[in-house]
Amino acid sequence: MTLNALICGASQGIGLALCEQLLARDDVARVWAVSRQARGSQALAALAAAHGERLVRIDCDARNEQALEALASEVSRICTHLDLVISTLGILQRDGAKAEKALAQLDLAGLQASFATNAFAPVLLLKHLLPLLRKQPCTFAALSARVGSIGDNRLGGWYSYRASKAALNQLLHTASIELKRLNPASTVLVLHPGTTDTQLSQPFQANVPAEQLFAPAFAAQCILEQIGRLGPADSGTFWAWDGQPITW
Ligand SMILES: NC(=O)c1ccc[n+]([C@@H]2O[C@H](COP(=O)([O-])OP(=O)(O)OC[C@H]3O[C@@H](n4cnc5c(N)ncnc54)[C@H](OP(=O)(O)O)[C@@H]3O)[C@@H](O)[C@H]2O)c1
To answer: Is the pTM of this model over 0.90?
Structure first.
């Protein structure tokens, strides 16, 4: 057991399933489970009861740089290197974000809310964890969404979610170039988990065929498969759950 992994967005949904699967692995020493309500999550409390000190729960609002700084110092008190960081941060219709269908529904507050969580928080997380990612092989993966692809956008709608995920993609592609210089053994990935049965997708599931709505455990398994398959030569690229590349 040697690997240290940190999941940001761990209290529910795909992030929680990632924590469960990482803790079940023999090669993972410790999982850092981070979200605003990590310590209040009953599911994480049950995992902590089963795995003891291998799971560290930290409450942190990733939109707040002071909180991210405190997170980085708390992690570095226990370990000097993170092998894997996965940002599952994302909102579609909460904390002020809206799934707009038309320009008339757009407003500044909704756009700012989507961008703050979906684009700015993951890259600020990377900024603050950078000292823990500099020495050995490491992967920083963020869950984006296929709807963030400009080349793939045929339906329109969801203005701020789409645009904030496109901004996330650009921020992480840019960061991958810098990280390549700082640590040639680093891998930065942008991943689409597929439509998954979580609180985020719940209001939009009516028209999704059952076989296209994944369980969080399946999405987490596919994400870990992609992370296992992709390495430094793939850094800065955008992939779907099934290993297909996605156009920016
Ligand atoms: N579900 C889908 O169908 C689907 C499809 C495509 C892409 N995605 C992407 O996959 C990712 C995971 O989605 P999900 O469906 O698992 O969502 P979810 O169930 O809503 O979980 C989101 C997680 O993010 C945490 N979070 C939100 N804002 C935060 C903040 N400011 N600071 C720290 N943690 C924060 C939440 O915990 P707290 O409330 O405790 O902070 C929660 O643990 C998202 O990026 C989403 O855009 C999902």
So the answer is: yes
